[in-house]
Specification:
Strand content: under 5%
Structural class: mainly alpha
Largest sheet: none
Number of strands: 0
Radius of gyration: 20 Å
Order of helices and strands: HHHHHHHHHHHHHHH
Length: 397
């Protein structure tokens, strides 16, 4: 792959991941405040979304292995189109629930099926994109390459709330249809412009990596616990704003939550998309920094006396995210062989499903005990994770 096609491939991957992140961030911003209007309680809503993410455990490794055996490009494209269709299905399920002509049980079933389809197909995006980056970057540039994908994800997470707020005047669910449209456009662009990198699988080089592979264990633990805490926090953000700071209007909750998540995404985008493209930190260094920075951010959010410090705490989560994603993905990539990249990335993504599965229910349950319980739980948990990360050995580039 020559330099021009390598650069083009990175840009298309980054754009595709950004488009996916736009849709994903819209789900968290729009759906949570609307859930009570469909008749679902906060815990019921979180449980439905958590259970609907169970397919990720099976589909993420499957898509990763398929990217090793059948190429990165087709799997990446499947992920984009699948996430677009899934976003539409979730929006339609919510439309039905908000119509007032449905039972709570019916709404729950439709939301579960729509989200399950979304999670099953969107699971193809990260294994294929991470493996693609591993294919086209040198080992010394691995964290830099993974940071580019992480920065694109954060840019999309930043644009999602902006799109949601800017288009909400048309209808609260209208931004989701717009997100589905742009994801479809990204898939079409990838079909015609993305070049398949060199394949690393041959008949004598089979992929046999499994969940139990000890090389993956520390990265799966860090990834899974991080997303467990982070997603549980996302699911209670609107409720926290409502109960602690007194903003009872769902529109106000969406606006403040959007600003908080956008501030976080701005930090991630700048650090990963700019700073880490100039400097080249080793994944080992990033792995040791992301835990302590997450603990500090969670404590600031829990103790914030006003909205401004709450938003500042979320921006500091951006620092942790900026360290964590290239540290974990880059470190894992250096610990496995070239022909195992897609499968390893898929298994890592599956390990991270503890967050999407348990987080939507854990957050509201802890919140019911105390509004600050989700943050304090995360801070204590990540104190232990931070010490553990210092024992992880990553090969030199």
């Amino acid at each position: 792959m020559n330099m021009s096609s390598t650069t083009r491939g990175k840009l298309i991957l980054a754009a595709g991941v950004a488009l996916f992140a736009i849709g994903q961030s819209l789900l968290f911003i729009i759906i949570a405040p609307l859930a009570p209007k469909t008749g679902l309680t906060e815990i019921q809503f979180g449980t439905i979304f958590g259970l609907a993410n169970i397919p990720l455990i099976f589909t993420a490794p499957m898509w990763g292995k398929l990217s090793d055996t059948h190429g990165r490009k087709p799997i990446f494209i499947i992920g984009l189109f699948g996430s677009a269709i899934g976003t539409i299905l979730v929006a339609l399920a919510l439309e039905y629930g908000l119509s007032g002509s449905s039972t709570v049980v019916t709404v729950a079933i439709y939301l579960f099926l729509a989200r399950a389809f979304y999670s099953s197909t969107a699971a193809a995006i990260y294994p294929s994109s991470n493996a693609y980056i591993a294919d086209i970057t040198e080992r010394s540039d691995r964290a830099q390459g993974m940071a580019l994908i992480g920065g694109a994800n954060s840019l999309g997470s930043m644009l999602g709330p902006a799109i949601g707020g800017g288009l909400a005047f048309v209808g609260l669910l209208f931004p989701m249809y717009v997100a589905a449209f742009v994801m479809t456009a990204g898939g079409i662009w990838a079909i015609f412009s993305l070049t398949e990198p060199k394949k690393h699988v041959s008949q004598n080089n089979k992929v046999n990596i499994k969940f139990t592979d000890k090389r993956l264990r520390p990265f799966m633990i860090a990834w899974g616990v991080f997303f467990l805490v982070f997603i549980s926090l996302q699911f209670i953000t609107a409720y926290y704003i409502r109960d602690v700071f007194g903003y009872t209007d769902p529109a106000d909750q969406m606006r403040i939550a959007s600003i908080a998540l956008a501030s976080m995404a701005i930090i991630i985008t700048v650090v990963q998309g700019v700073i880490f493209q100039i400097f080249r930190p080793h994944p080992r260094t990033l792995l040791r920094l992301f835990g302590p920075s997450f603990v500090i951010a969670l404590l600031i959010i829990a103790l914030a006396p006003n909205i401004y410090l709450l938003i500042f705490g979320y921006s500091l989560i951006g620092i942790s995210f900026a360290f964590g994603t290239p540290g974990i993905n880059g470190g894992l990539s250096l610990c496995v062989e070239a022909h195992e990249q897609g499968t390893a990335a898929g298994i890592l993504a599956a390990g991270g499903t503890i967050g999407p599965i348990l987080g939507p229910a854990l957050g509201p349950m802890l919140f019911s005990l105390s509004p600050t319980a989700p943050m304090l739980f995360g801070a204590v948990t990540f104190t232990f994770i931070s010490f553990y990360m210092f024992s992880v050995k990553i090969p030199e580039a």
